[in-house]
Amino acid sequence: MRATGVLLLLAAALLRAAETESIVYIGTYTRQDSKGIYAFRFDASPGKLNPLGLAAETSNPSFLAVAPNQRFVYAVNENSPGSLSAFAIEPGSGRLKFLNMVPSRGSGPCHVVFDRTGKWLFASNYNSGSIAVFPVREDGTLGEASGFVQHSGSSVNPQRQEGPHVHSATVSAVNRFILVADLGLDRVMIYRFDAAKGTLAPNDPPFAKVAPGSGPRHLAFRPDGKFVYALNEMSGTVTAFAYDSARGSMEEVQNLSTLPAGFNGPNGSAEIAVHPNGKFLYASNRGHDSIAIFNVDGAKGTLTLVDRVATQGKTPRNFAIDPTGVFLFAANQDSGNVVVFRIDQKTGRLTATGEVVQVPSPVSVVFAR
To answer: Quick one: which of 116, 122, 224, 260 is 20 to 30 A from 79 by CA?
Structure first.
């Protein structure tokens, strides 16, 4: 009986650890001191980070994705020509074992995301303005592209929008539609996705527009799938859309700034996320170096500003909410630090925990259980 009790206590402790512990992988630009992807062990109970060191050496892993089965990590290699790298997570150490690399089918890949089945990976090629689909094999390796779409056209800014610049792909909850933000076109392209073949086809309607010169960068769905929010890099705004899950269509309901009134300094909005509870939305500003916090109206999907919080660093290119929904990690690219904030579950406000780690040129944060 005593041995059984000890085993039960051990099992309970392991369960608690599984609920609160994760490995944080941080992708970087390797143009200066960085060598690739860095790892930390994070315990959400005390909110502490412990360094695991360099997890994988690879060139310019500027955006990462963790497989739904928590066994693999995928990175874009933001080069010209671009590529995607696949890694297996080594149990215990959290280090990443290189599996294989495939061409991204374009230049400057800057975003990668899974479909809902975990069998397909979407890569966004910024410089060349294309989106590609890749099969993920059982052993975690990537196959050659099964689907590919090259965008064309331009918009009103001759310096930034002289051609297409695909910045991200966002997967609908039912896995039928893929929303592709093209900064160069001021459009969110809408594609029908065939999850059996890994192919894309234009939807009807084929796109949603944002205001000219806005430059859509990243999108985030509300968890119930009724609304989707586009963060516009060039204008520093968020455009809220009502989303029709049957047609894949988007109807604008609101457009508002992430910046304070009167701010006229250089800025490029970067990352957007809706809290898992669906009540709060966060958007980062590079230049103002802040995260804007909004309340989300449950019925209308519209946003109301709550606060703006300094990220305690320069150029917050990316941030991520941890799996518990309690913490937000802000990656400040130009100051080389990642700052941990606690999320107030009632108001959505952010409070710095004092946990700060140094990482050279951090540009992507993901979590693996």
So the answer is: 116
| Residue in 29, 49, 30, 48 with CA at minimum distance from that of residue 39 | 49
Adjacent-strand bridge partners of 332: 316, 337
* Structure confidence by residue, pLDDT tens digits, 165-186: 999 999 999 999 999 999 999 9
* 225 DSSP assignment: S
User: In this structure, what token pair is assigned to residue 141?
Assistant: 């390796």
Helix (H, G, I), strand (E, B) or coil at 250: strand
Q: How far apart are CA 291 and CA 284, in angstroms?
A: 4
Token pair recorded at residue 231: 């963060």
Coil/strand/helix, residue 269: strand
Q: 12: pLDDT confidence band, cut at 50, 70 and 90?
A: very low
pTM value is: 0.94
Residue 174 CB neighbour total at 10 angstroms:
12
DSSP assigned state of 92: T
311 neighbors 328 (Cβ within 8 angstroms): no
How many C-beta neighbours within 10 Å does residue 74 have? 25
Cα 151 to Cα 164: distance, rounded to the nearest angstrom: 6
On the question of a cis peptide bond just before residue 323, with omega within 30 degrees of 0, the verdict is: no
Q: What is the pLDDT of residues 204-213, one digit of tens each?
A: 999 999 999 9
Q: Report the first-to-last Cα separation within the chain, whole angstroms.
A: 32
Q: Which amino acid is at 106?
A: G
Q: With contact defined as beta carbons under 8 Å apart, do 151 and 203 qualify?
A: no
DSSP string computed for 134-188: EEB-TTS-B-S-SEEEE-----S-TTT-SS--EEEEEE-TTSSEEEEEETTTTEE
